[in-house]
């Protein structure tokens, strides 16, 4: 079974999925949130779980640099709890500090335009979250 990872934002949610052996992460898509709440994306996430045969989800937890959890982190924790209740599969949190910035830097180094970066940075951040989670659980 595979693992699905989410980089949850208020407007976009980056999605990545592992391979069957849970060794590598690949970007899947960016879900665009049209309303005020990321929870409106649960239907699409459920479709992706079924499509990719995922048995668990990892949600990035944006901690402060000192390790504390601020308002944004609390929103992600609430999102994860609601996701687990609604979809009935395990949802894990993974410290995502600086993943979006690292993804942005990688795309800049690849000489990608700002417009193109905006379309893929969340998906790439989800890949970084998932790969970190997979590396941690494999060791």
Notes on the protein architecture:
This protein has one domain (2-138): YqgF/RNase H-like domain (Nucleotidyltransferase, domain 5, 2-Layer Sandwich), CATH 3.30.420.140. The protein is 46% helix and 25% strand. It contains 4 helices and 5 strands. Strand 1 (2-8) and strand 2 (12-18) form a beta hairpin. It is globular.
**Radius of gyration in whole Å, from Cα?**
14 Å
In one word, what is the shape? globular
CATH architecture term: 2-Layer Sandwich
Average pLDDT level: 89
What is the secondary structure topology, with strand pairs?
Blueprint lengths: L1 E7 L3 E7 L6 E8 L9 H11 L1 E8 L9 H17 L3 E5 L3 H11 L4 H25 L1
Parallel strand pairs: 1-4, 4-5
Antiparallel strand pairs: 1-2, 2-3
Helix pairs in contact: 3-4
Enzyme class: hydrolase
Main location: cytoplasm
Subcellular location: Cytoplasm
């Amino acid at each position: 079974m595979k693992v699905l990872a989410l980089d949850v934002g208020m407007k976009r949610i980056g999605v990545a999925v592992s391979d069957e052996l849970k060794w590598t992460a690949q970007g899947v898509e960016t879900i665009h949130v049209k309303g005020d709440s990321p929870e409106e994306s649960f239907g699409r996430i459920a479709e992706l779980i079924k499509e990719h045969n995922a048995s668990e989800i990892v949600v990035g937890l944006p901690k402060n640099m000192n390790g504390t959890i601020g308002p944004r982190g609390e929103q992600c924790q609430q999102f994860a709890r609601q996701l687990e209740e609604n979809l009935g599969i395990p949802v894990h949190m993974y410290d995502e500090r600086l993943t979006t910035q690292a993804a942005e830097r990688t795309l800049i180094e690849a000489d990608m335009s700002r417009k193109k970066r905006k379309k893929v940075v969340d998906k790439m951040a989800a890949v970084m979250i998932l790969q970190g989670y997979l590396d941690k659980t494999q060791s």
